[in-house]
Design brief:
It is a single chain. The protein has 389 residues and is an alpha/beta fold. It is 35% helix and 25% strand. It has helices at residues 18-29, 44-47, 64-78, 88-96, 112-119, 121-131, 143-147, 183-191, 249-262, 292-297, 302-310, 331-340, 344-351, 370-385, and strands at residues 9-13, 33-38, 53-56, 82-84, 106-107, 139-142, 157-160, 165-168, 171-174, 178-180, 197-202, 208-216, 219-232, 238-244, 266-275, 278-285, 325-327, 357-359. A seven-stranded mixed beta sheet has the order 16-15-12-13-14-17-18. Strands 3-2-1-4-5 form a five-stranded parallel beta sheet, sandwiched between helices. Strand 2 (33-38), helix 2 and strand 3 form a beta-alpha-beta unit. The relative contact order is 0.14.
């Protein structure tokens, strides 16, 4: 696959996450020159040999305007031709403050209203249903509703924030999806959310399937289908073991209809659970995502395709290889959890190595990011081994 303007400097945020590391590696492999912009030093992306360098910027969750302004100055100083936001806060900040960048810099952030629409979990249910997907029954529930007896969910349920990133005081904060097995757990989950309100859905059991790709003005330019083997945490976690699978035409058509409805431009990760003969949409991440390395290893260099589109080129997408596997470092925890749940056979099968497996962080060709894992392990060990308060 040929990409336009090879050698262009690309400034990427989100290098503190494994998806950001995958983006940096993918851009270098495609012939671009990636630079990393993060709010802390020594991130996965900054440590990678694929990165040409790194700059320190304000956390977009704490100060979106300062983040965008510092990124704009860095882009001008480095002569970057493209800026790629790696997180939802970065998408929102750059979409809101696009005017701070020189006109010749392509910024991969749509207007903020498009990002808000794409990350709204309540409207996702209606949009996904209209596109042809099944959707678990979704209700906005407040803590007052629960205490007053106005809702009587059948447990277990899944509790979601209305968006993954929400303002909590003056800071944008990330809130995770959790499972609640009883009223006490649901009360605790709602109490921890802004306005003590969240979306409640039945807990659907089944394999997780995702469609990952790049859209441009609502048109899906490239798409990769994958099937998850495990997540961590086991109940409502991120995919930590997966493999690419053939395109399922019905799912692909519905995913394209959803992206067209949103008018989205950029990366996306659409998640669904297959149960009862239907594919139930559970989430949409319109950004760089955790298992991005799998698509790249399968021959679909999504970050490079996105960059090329921003530069005004339309690369030809020739498909991807099926049977390619992905494993993140959290999979060790998932296998341990599977064993503790009484599924020894599944845990042992998960230990069997497979050819053509790519990892989220560990790489013989790029070993430095692994230092981040070791540093985190040392910090955890020190905290657990230190004096108790």
């Amino acid at each position: 696959m040929e990409f336009g303007d090879r050698g262009t400097r690309v400034l990427v945020s989100g290098g503190e996450y494994t998806g950001g590391l995958a983006a940096v590696r993918a851009l270098r492999a495609a012939g671009y020159e990636p630079w990393v912009a993060d709010p802390v030093d020594g991130t996965y992306g900054a440590l990678s040999r694929a990165a040409a360098g790194s700059v320190r910027v304000t956390d977009p969750r704490a100060d979106p305007l300062s983040f965008a302004g510092e990124l704009a100055k860095a882009a001008s100083r480095l002569g970057a031709g493209v800026v790629l936001p790696g997180t939802e806060p970065a998408l929102l900040a750059l979409g809101e403050h696009r005017g701070l960048f020189p006109a010749e810099v392509a910024v991969g952030a749509p207007p903020p209203e498009l990002t808000i629409a794409a990350t709204d979990k309540q409207s996702l249910a209606a949009r996904a249903s209209a596109a042809g997907f099944a959707v678990p029954p979704t209700h906005l529930v407040t803590l007052d509703d629960l205490r007053a007896g106005r809702v009587a969910p059948r447990y277990p349920v899944v509790v979601k924030p209305v968006r993954s990133e929400l303002w909590d005081g003056d800071v944008l904060q990330r809130f995770e999806v959790v499972q609640a097995r009883d009223e006490a757990a649901l009360t605790a989950a709602l109490t921890g959310l802004p306005d003590q309100a969240g979306l409640v859905q039945p807990y659907v059991v089944g394999p997780i399937r995702t469609v990952n790709g790049v859209a441009w003005r609502g048109e899906v330019v490239a798409a990769v289908h994958k099937l998850a083997d495990r997540t961590w945490p086991l109940d409502c976690g991120v995919v930590c073991s997966a493999r690419t699978v053939p395109v399922e035409p019905e799912v692909d058509r519905a995913a394209r209809a959803l992206m067209a409805d949103l008018g989205w431009s950029g990366l996306f990760n659409l998640q669904m659970i297959s149960a009862g003969g239907a594919h139930h949409v559970i989430d949409l991440n319109p950004r760089i995502y955790h298992s991005l390395a799998l698509a790249v290893a399968a021959g679909a260099n999504l970050p490079a395709i996105w960059t090329s589109l921003l530069l005004g080129h339309r690369p030809t997408f020739a498909g991807y290889r099926t049977g390619v596997r992905f494993r993140s470092e959290e999979d060790a925890m998932a296998l341990w959890g599977t064993l503790l749940d009484g599924h020894a056979g599944a845990a042992l099968r998960g230990l069997v190595p497979h050819r053509h497996t790519t990892h989220a962080v560990v790489s013989l060709r790029d070993p430095a990011p692994t230092l981040n894992i070791l540093r985190r392990a040392v910090r955890v060990a020190r905290r657990r081994g230190g004096p108790r308060g």
